Each structure stands twice: as C-alpha cells, then as structure tokens.
Amino acid sequence: MRLLVALVLMLGVQLPALASVTEELARGKIPLYPGAKPHPTRLSKGDQAIVTVEADLRSVVAFYRKELPRKGWRSAIDDDLLNRDLDKVPLALLLYEKGDARLRVVVASRPGAKPVSTIWLGAEPSRRQQELEHGKPAR
Fold first, then answer.
1. How far apart (Å, rounded) are the C-alpha atoms in residues 13 and 80?
2. Is the pTM value of this prediction over 0.85?
3. Left if phi > 0, otherwise alpha if psi is -120 to 50, otherwise beta: which for 48?
4. Which fold, 2-134?
C-alpha cells in the first residue's frame, strides 16, 4: 500500500475532466473489477477511487485492457512495453483516454495463496484538453 501511495503522489493528479471517477463507476462508464468495492477518496487536486480485490495482478490488468475499450476508452500509451515485467514488479500502470478525459489505472498486487490487488483509478484532463488550456502541446 505504501508503494501505491508513493506512486500516486509521484504521478500527481490534476483536475478531472470526468464528472467524478466514483460517479462514472456508479454509472458503469468506468468498469469495476468484479468483487471489488470502491472506497472513494477526494483529493484537493483531482478525483480518484481506490479499491481492493482478491485477484492477481495479471487478471486485473487483463480485465481493464479488455473492458475499458468496450466502454469507449482507448489506450494512450504502449502499456505492453511499460508493463512487461509484471512477474518481477507487482505494479502496473494503464493510461486510457475518452474525449477530454484521461483515466489512470494503477494496480499494485501482493502475491500469495490468496493474492490481493489494490486498484487506483484516477481522472485528469486528456492531452488534447491540456493543450487547449495551456495553448501549447502537452508532453
């Protein structure tokens, strides 16, 4: 959990383009891993939902890679390259965009007989929205 919190702080969270991650979860516009129960948390600079589920890292990552595109989200990064060492590092980052919204999905897992994964879903403006707001290409 400390690793997840450190990663969230390191990545930063900007003002959300989505109404609210928790609202989008409730509406079914962002899929929730089966069996996970959201525990919404609001940050002063954005919106996020953190959930914990008894599932291994690969299962959670496969779920979001399959389900987010079904909801109209498209991958914004080559997450195969980014997440190629899932066996060595029990942490994955997925980044998806839909319209003016960007969704970060960070998954941290604890392996074992009953693996547990913590899933962090965070919203921010898309790269296109950032360019419009700042008048220059986003990096």
1. 23
2. no
3. beta
4. TATA-Binding Protein (3.30.310)
